[in-house]
Design goal:
globular, 3 domains
Length: 369
Amino acid sequence: MIARLHRWNAALDEAIDARALALARMAVAPLVVLHLQPSFAEAAANRFNLPYASWYPIASPGLHRAILWATVAAAVATSLGLCTRLAAWATALGVGYNLFLSQTYFHHNRAFLLILLVGVAVLPTGARLSLDRRLGTPTAISIGGGRRLALTVLRVEVALVYLASGTSKLLDPDWWGGTVTLIRVERYASDLISRGVPQGVVDLLTSPGFHQWAAKAVVLTELFIGAGLLWRHSRLGAVWTAVAFHTAIQLTADVQVFSVAAICALVIWVTPQSRDRILRLGSDARAATVALIHALDWTGRFTVGRHAKPGWEVVDRDGSVLRAARARWFVLSRLPITFLFTAPALLRPIRRAYAEGVGARDSGAEVPE
């Protein structure tokens, strides 16, 4: 036990590969633009503010708009990976300043975006897929020195968002009993009818009995995502559930950029070492297949090579080998664009394959050319 704690403590100081994290960085500009759109209108209208503290500096309407535009410019530079570290901190500070201008601005979904922006600034997200990498921008303002400890803190913070939200709803009788979800749906019932939703469906969605179960499903889903993300064996299912969960929220509720930001934030759960799995394509694989896998492997999961035998072969990070259909399904479950459609079907076959020892143990396999 003591030895395991020592290894875990040493791992926190390891450098991390920022290939997957670069995807979160690239999403910063659209997220910040969508987030700040209402603020531009409010700044122009000189809307009433309710300050958190008397000492907090309140910018004039003109200066406020200038700060918002500077924040947008910094967000664009962050997404491009130009002076990434400096631009990411400028983006986080601009969004943070605007968020805390007034108590009326604050929402938990906006606070989540700020957490993500700070994570992008702290972690070395400019190390991959960035203009800084091409231009050789000095490390002090581009890459930064983020370690696994910073990534672990960000992961815990994101998991706590789900756990805190689910726990608060679990302890709230109105939420657990379905009253809150019923009120929200009743508010938009007329809109559903005008959009052509059948009356029978609207009646079901506005039924108290339906919400007694639906609300419990929402609460338990949040708790499962928060707890499942923290354990490696349940993480694949938790990430898949989170994508479906946030897609449903975005379609049924007004949460601004929260769902999009939360889906983007899921890349922080990718193992922080690139090319940690080996994919060998057989002699029967077309060159277009190799090119397609390279193009879709946005998080850099696979080192792709060839072997003389026909068929696909995957060497997992623990040395286990999967072949043929299982190898293809495994690859599809790790490519972001196909993950949502293949991961659920893969969970049981992969577990059974590992339990039965399917394939050879090849822990000493060499990385192909």
